[in-house]
Amino acid sequence: MLGAAIIVFRESLEAALLIGIIAAAARSLPGRNRWLAAGVAAGVAGAFVVAAFTSTIGELADGVGQELLTAGILGLAVVMLAWHNIWMSQHARQMITDARSVVQDVADGKRELSAIALVIALAVLREGAETVLFLYGIASQGETTGQVLAGGALGLGAGALVGAALYMGLLRIPVRWFFSVTAVMVLLIAAGMAGQMARFLIQGDIIPAIASPIWDTSRLIPDGSALGTLLHVLAGYDARPSAMQALFYISALAIIVIGMRLARQRPARLGAA
Amino acid sequence: MKHVLALCLALPLAAFAATPEFALEIKDHRFSPEEVHVPAGTKVKLRVHNQDSTPEEFESHQLNREKVIAPGSTASIFIGPLKPGKYTFVGEFHEDTARGVVIAE
Predict the structure, then answer these.
(1) Which of A12, A56, A269, B41 is most buried by its number of CB atoms within 10 A?
(2) B49 domain-assigned
(3) What is the pTM for the complete model shown?
């Protein structure tokens, strides 16, 4: 039971922290909770579908279907997070001064919320599929289903608690700095996902590693340690990245920062009105 | 520019050069063999066949790899080029028994 709890906690942590950050960033958008819930529900449903088809997916594309799917999910999530950050940097000033003025353009707000829902669905899908497979595995080898479910619920609850704590913590940040803090967090998560995407493409031999690893900080902060895991989730930390991973990471970071700068110079239509 | 062009031409050619393959099996939540000797300095392909009736996740921080392997199926995992040394891996879903090491030499 404890084994199930630990693995489910580890898998749910990434999605929970992402949901915490995104939920905070979108706090002044109307209908936020409905969109967040829809994202989680779609992600859970998707996780069961992916888990059920693991074998089929694995055999696609000469045995690297799983890498392609994971890389695709990560790539789409990076695009949506980039969109979110650019949208936010266009609207942040308005949100600080008057939360209500942002929602005047309903269609615009809906696009942003649907991007957020998609990011959350993708995160839940990716981590959820592994969780479903793992729980299925231990349920089918002795441990009673009740115990497995209890362990899973415990792990999920602990993960959700950490996400909720991050959310509460973020909300305490003064409004002046709030959007800058969440923007930096989302930026690092997006860059980290881009790096992970490269890692899966390298694992499937679709792109070259160029040089691997380009550095090794596994003695300083091991990947599996608590700090390593937290940094991995929040900033894409990898103790032994390849040059290609670093290239993806830096490129995503640069492109999103440039996009945010451009968006800030060209304020939203609403702001001009 | 010339170098970039040469690199672009060389990359697909390098990909065509046969990648050495190494077969592993997962049975009763253990890897067999538990020690895999591979050449250092070149990309190699691990073919991991999961004979158990439950899924397993091949995971190695040192190799920077993770892959879920469905019951009864075989997964391809490309690793390296590696520096000579030992690289441990585990089956994340059964970490207490499923352990192994890749030795690059």
Answers:
(1) A12
(2) yes
(3) 0.88
